[in-house]
Amino acid sequence: MAYYYPEPSRTFSEYLLVPGYTSEDCRPDNVSLKAPMVRFKKGEEPALSLNVPMVSAIMQAVSGEKMAIALAKEGGVAFIFGSQSIESEAAMVSRAKAYKAGFVASDSNLKPDSTLADVLALLKITGHSTMAVTDSGTPNGKLLGLVTSRDYRVSRMSHDVKVTEFMTPVDRLITAPKNTTLKQANDIIWEHKLNALPIVGINTLDYEERVPALVEAGADILCIDSSEGFTVWQKRTLEFIRSKYGNSVKIGAGNVVDREGFLFLAEAGADFIKVGIGGGSICITREQKGIGRGQATALIEVAAARDEYFEKTGIYVPICSDGGIVLDYHMTLALAMGADFLMLGRYFARFDESPTNKLNINGTYVKEYWGEGSNRARNWQRYDLGGTSDLSFEEGVDSYVVYAGSLQDNVAKSLYKVKSTMCNCGVMSIPDLQENAKITLVSSTSIVEGGYHDVTLRSTNTTV
Ligand code: MZP
Hints:
With 464 residues, this protein is of the alpha/beta class. It is built from 15 helices and 21 strands. Helix 1 crosses helix 2 (86-101), helix 2 packs parallel to helix 6 and helix 11 packs across helix 13. It starts with 14 loop residues before the first strand and ends in a 14-residue tail after the last helix. Ligand MZP binds next to strand 17 and helix 12.
């Protein structure tokens, strides 16, 4: 007999957060949204972290070079889409790398014996809050560490203290490859202590050719782009990468929606695991094949499996909630339910930085947004299970989303909302939120109560 889950599968809009105690310190400015991106051992730091828990979807209509650069500036990362030829994907990676190399040499350099007073003096001259500490104090010297405004408190520290005492040392930074001189480092990387601009999608079919080409082009981290990850194909792809590159190439896998799927990919060596089937705004997989699971239920179960795996093995494998985020509060809920970071498609597709056309339809500006499983993207590899390719069928739609302006403005507003909500919950970091959030299911009648009701709106321009 088939297995029947005792509870229905649910999605974000069926839940609400209940406030916790908010102390004086608990202000949005003090909230950290830092999130681990790749697996790490208990007591160690992950080799790669995000400063904000957002990544853009591995989709033609979302993640090109422009998105990669804009999102890195905000502290997140973009996954350059894999549904293009190996040559054009590798060229995109190289161009993003070239952008990185095209930055001017840093004019903010310190010597190891420079002091906080020197930092403040340099800040006054250049206006740049991120400074490199090099052995010679020149842009071409050996990088020893970075100082940012987060590393010191002017009012609490002696101005004689040496930068080596409060800088972030180079071994705790994600640094550029050996042959990259300091001259080639750039503000984005330094500001965010991140060198992973080109992050790319691969598939489980041509990985033996694609992965070496992408690694050669400078990709720092890869992700297997597939609608369903609990498969032998993902295990083989992970094994190939581990045998060829050991742990030097980081790779995410997915998507899964339950404990079994998570444990399978964690055992197979995935650096992070994506959660979600059928919840994407452009996705019709549930209608076409009747498979999937409500995103909230999937996330809650997978997060519990991640914690169980960590408890048992001492290895933490971050999870990414992929698809179905519509309102900003869904982001906070997903994090509270255990997601380490979020993958968003529709959200980013609306911005100037997505690679699609902006059109005016009946007086409203829109941007094009199509699924990887649509006839337009023709990314059949993402859904391939080894059958007859000329019988491929669509699992995604071709659509428009209302244009929303620049990525920077929108991300700043959304994250401010997330931080404010976290303050309502009385927490100041994502792990704190995951540990202490109080979450309640809502009845359909109380969902009605949650919107405006029993009034007549004066203006219909209310935005959320
Ligand atoms: P959303 O943020 O637009 O709701 O969802 C984006 C996610 O939908 C992607 O990250 C991917 O996992 C999934 N996706 C992309 N294309 C399709 C499709 O054509 C799809 N069915 O489901």
